[in-house]
Structures are given as structure tokens and as C-alpha cells.
């Protein structure tokens, strides 16, 4: 009768192979776990990168819309004054179209905003965007510079250096000088009849005058006065929209748009047939109005560079010269 020790003694190779297989399986499991933990998830990285890209584009769109919104009359006047506009107001004013993040979710229209703060010589523009997966903001120094396409823009040192160079060339006066008449005296010595020496002087006179004209550059200034509109009236009661009137939405400064129309539809009973109620869609509309108090205007003037009188009256450079 064989014992367990006798069995092991007869098959030592089998025990060695079983142990080797167990060790190999254990090593494979460890390598798999380490690889799974240390290898980055490419799909997650790609998705995160695309989300950041869309977020940055939306943040940039809000900044560009801010340059259109902050016209001269909307700029803060005193140091420390702030002018702020939410993303909801920007969309309602047609400064921006409604946008979403990379996942198709709408960003927070109340906590997302643009804010302009008055400093000593310039302004600080803050653009804040809050979406479902990310919230961030940008701070930019802006001002009223000649090279701006709008009333304000980013400070560009390279353009300022170029403007300064062109300005120096344009405003440099050409000095007209009159050269003094120069007389060269040629002395000729002759022997006179008396045997003495006679000196004869012959004057040589020439003159030269620089007639280069003086160059004066004129700069164009412009002052834009926005129209003044009354506050909106209250919305009228709902009326049947039997004439299929379309909705109307006015921008805040559109002097030609004095009436807004809001539409509303609902299912309700419109009659009976064979003793049974008949339901259908009924359309309604409501109206509110405002009045034009004074029309806007644009005034253009030409003057020399840095005309303090015009600048104090609210005129700004257009960038045109002659």
C-alpha cells in the first residue's frame, strides 16, 4: 500500500510543472493589473481635450462679443466703476447665439458673464464661463486705442510702436532755412603805373533757399450718440392669433423696433362632434410697445492729432487720416 509520500516520490516532475504553471499564471495576472492601472485611458484623454477646446472657443466668443457691446456710452466713467452683462442678456441682445459644451449641455447663463472695470488709464475685462464640467475665466487689459476695430480692444505694444513711428514721421515739421549770402573775395594784385602795388577786390555772391513745404496730417474724429428709448409697456392680455402673427424680438438699442410680440399655444376644446368634444391647438399672442424719445446721430470732424477739446466732448479716433 502506497502512502502520499511514495506517490510524490514517484511523480516529482508533475509537481514541478504544476508549481511552474501556477507561478506563470500569477505573473501574468500581476502584469495585466499593472498595465491596466498605469496605461492612460486614451478615450478619456481625447474626450477631455475636446471638452477643453470647445470651452476655450466659447470663452473666446464671449470676449469678442464684449468688444462689440462696450461702446463709448457703455464704458464705466469713474475709477472702480463696473459694467456687467450676463450670458443670458448677451443671448437676448443677439450679441451671441446660444451655445453648449462638448457634451451638448447648456452652460449656466446666469453665472456666466462679462465684466468691465475702470482703472486709471485703461480697463480690465473679465470673461467668466461656467459649464457642467468646467468653470474658468480670463482677465484682459483693454483700452481705447487708435488701432481698435471697436471702441475698445486689447493693448498691442507692437501696434503702438508702429503708430508712434508713423506719427513722428507725419507730424515732423520740415524746417525751411535761408542760407546766408556768402561773399568770397578774390584779391588780384597788379603793378600800378607809379610802380606801387594796387589791390583789386572782386566780390563773388551766391545764395541758396530750401523750399520744401511743411506737411500737416489731419485726423478723423467721430462721435456716436445712441437713440433714447422709453421703457417697455406691460404685456397686453392674450388674444387669439387668427391672423398668424409672427413673434418679434427687439434688441435694446434698435430704434426702428418699437413693438415686441410674444406667442403662446395650447391644446383646448374647440367644439363637439357626434356628442364628443373636439380638441385642437389654439394660438395666442401678446404685445408690448415702447416709444422713441430721441434719435441717435453720428458726427464726424477733422482735426490735428490729440485734439483735447474733441476728445473731452466724446469724440474718438476712426483711424482715418488725410
Tell me about this structure.
By secondary structure, the protein is an alpha+beta fold. Among the domains are: 9-38; 42-154, no CATH class; 228-294, no CATH class. It has helices at residues 4-10, 12-38, 42-69, 87-92, 157-171, 308-312; strands spanning 82-86, 113-118, 123-130, 135-143, 153-154, 182-191, 197-206, 219-225, 228-229, 239-240, 259-273, 276-289, 292-294, 297-303, 316-321. It has a five-stranded antiparallel sheet. A three-stranded antiparallel sheet has the order 14-8-15, with no helix packed on it. A three-stranded antiparallel sheet has the order 10-12-11, with no helix packed on it. The longest helix is centred in the first third of the chain and has 28 residues, at 42-69. The chain is flat and about 115 Å long. The termini are far apart. The model is unreliable at 173-202 (pLDDT under 50).
| Shape descriptor | flat
Order of helices and strands: HHHEHEEEEHEEEEEEEEEHE
- What gyration radius follows from the Cα positions, in whole Å? 42 Å
Q: Strand order, main sheet: write it out.
A: 1-2-3-4-5
> What is the residue-mean pLDDT, rounded to a whole number?
81
Fraction of residues in H or I helices:
25-40%
Helix/sheet category:
alpha+beta
Distance between the termini: 121 Å
* Biggest pleated-sheet summary: 5 strands, antiparallel
List segments where confidence is low: pLDDT < 50 over at least 5 consecutive residues: 173-202
Count of DSSP H/I helices: 6
Percent strand = 25-35%
Number-wise, the strands total 15
Amino acid at each position: 500500500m502506497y502512502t502520499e509520500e511514495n506517490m510524490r516520490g514517484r511523480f516529482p516532475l508533475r509537481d514541478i510543472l504544476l508549481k511552474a504553471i501556477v507561478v506563470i499564471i500569477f505573473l501574468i495576472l500581476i502584469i495585466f493589473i499593472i498595465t491596466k492601472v498605469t496605461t492612460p485611458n486614451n478615450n478619456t484623454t481625447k474626450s477631455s481635450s475636446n471638452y477643453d477646446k470647445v470651452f476655450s472657443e466659447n470663452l473666446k466668443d464671449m470676449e469678442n462679443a464684449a468688444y462689440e457691446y462696450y461702446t463709448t456710452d457703455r464704458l464705466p466713467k469713474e475709477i472702480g466703476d463696473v459694467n456687467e452683462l450676463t450670458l443670458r442678456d448677451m443671448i437676448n441682445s443677439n450679441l451671441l447665439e446660444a451655445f453648449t459644451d462638448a457634451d451638448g449641455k447648456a452652460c449656466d447663463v446666469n453665472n456666466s458673464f462679462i465684466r468691465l472695470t475702470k482703472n486709471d488709464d485703461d480697463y480690465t475685462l473679465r470673461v467668466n464661463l461656467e459649464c457642467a464640467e468646467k468653470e474658468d475665466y480670463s482677465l484682459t487689459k483693454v483700452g481705447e486705442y487708435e488701432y481698435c476695430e471697436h471702441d475698445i480692444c486689447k493693448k498691442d505694444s507692437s501696434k503702438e510702436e508702429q503708430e508712434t513711428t508713423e506719427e513722428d514721421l507725419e507730424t515732423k515739421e520740415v524746417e525751411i532755412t535761408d542760407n546766408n549770402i556768402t561773399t568770397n573775395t578774390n584779391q588780384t594784385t597788379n603793378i600800378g603805373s607809379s610802380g606801387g602795388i594796387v589791390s583789386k577786390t572782386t566780390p563773388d555772391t551766391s545764395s541758396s533757399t530750401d523750399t520744401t513745404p511743411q506737411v500737416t496730417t489731419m485726423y478723423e474724429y467721430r462721435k456716436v450718440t445712441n437713440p433714447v428709448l422709453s421703457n417697455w409697456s406691460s404685456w397686453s392680455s392674450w388674444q387669439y392669433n387668427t391672423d398668424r402673427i409672427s413673434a418679434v424680438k427687439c434688441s435694446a438699442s434698435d430704434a426702428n423696433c418699437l413693438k415686441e410680440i410674444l406667442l403662446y399655444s395650447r391644446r383646448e376644446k374647440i367644439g363637439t362632434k357626434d356628442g364628443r368634444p373636439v380638441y385642437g391647438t389654439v394660438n395666442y399672442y401678446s404685445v408690448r410697445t415702447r416709444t422713441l424719445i430721441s434719435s441717435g446721430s453720428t458726427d464726424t470732424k477733422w482735426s490735428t492729432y490729440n485734439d483735447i477739446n474733441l476728445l473731452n466732448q466724446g469724440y474718438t479716433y476712426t483711424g482715418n487720416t488725410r
